[in-house]
Amino acid sequence: MRNAIDGLFDDGGVWREGNQKIESVVTNYFSGLFSVVKLPARDVDEVFCSLQPCLSQQSCDYLDLPFIAKDIRRAVFDMAPTKSPGPDGLPALFYQKYWETVGPSITEASLKCLNDGESMRTLNETLICLIRKRLVVERMVDFRPISLCKCRMTVRFSFLINGTVCGSVEPLRGLRQGDLVSPYLYLLVLEGLSGLIREAVDQNVYIGFRCGRTGPVISHLFFTNDSLLFSGATTEECLEIRRILNVYSRASGQLVNFDKSEMCVSLTIFSSEGDRLAAIVGVRRVKCHERYLGLPYW
């Protein structure tokens, strides 16, 4: 088969072949990717203290209202009819077409979960399909995992390996591909990182970058899960960047991919000094950043 996985390197760099060994590599990779240690209370408190309230009491009261049957029906009929069927093969179209028959049961189960906290564990089994990022795949990072989700609560993943359902992992963090609320979750979580940076700027331990002599100071720009941080080329600010990223990672569970992170410095900074500052942050230094969404950075 064109998309068959013949073998993979494990974490120790050993080449593994055969379905059982490939399954072990895949399961170990995702177990480590989605595992999390207990969140340090000190770091969580620091993130929360950096946030400023932005909702009125009226908005908070509205968000606390219980779900009703109309909410469940609207959610089902807002789904694309033939996209993302579950492991049972039934797309949203089935439930929409036969809502008069299956709707009451779905509504009852959903309201018990949403309003009463009843477990939906038996409904949470999910499949992950590994999509190639490149023609020749040798490591797990060469794949893009696409999950086939049925709900947005705690999920147990299995894997489609060479057409066979294998393994099982219960993720403790991370967002599922196609999650309708993922943009909002990114915004909510990144607000914590933004708060830490703003607090550091207010305390003058992180200066940011001034756009011209009379222009505004920019400390950071966020777009979805991409982040641009601006600072002076000093040891103190680079140490503060690394500290903020470490606190944010421990508090949120979201890890920075330092292998894909880069730093560029002003042309007035010596190359050796730029390398030293990049090493403090833990990223590689590049001459200039590549294009982003088709547009040049500068």
UniProtKB/TrEMBL annotation:
Entries under InterPro entries matching the protein: Retrotransposon-Effector_Assoc (IPR052343)
Protein name: Reverse transcriptase domain-containing protein
UniProt organism field: Dipteronia sinensis
Lineage: Eukaryota, Viridiplantae, Streptophyta, Embryophyta, Tracheophyta
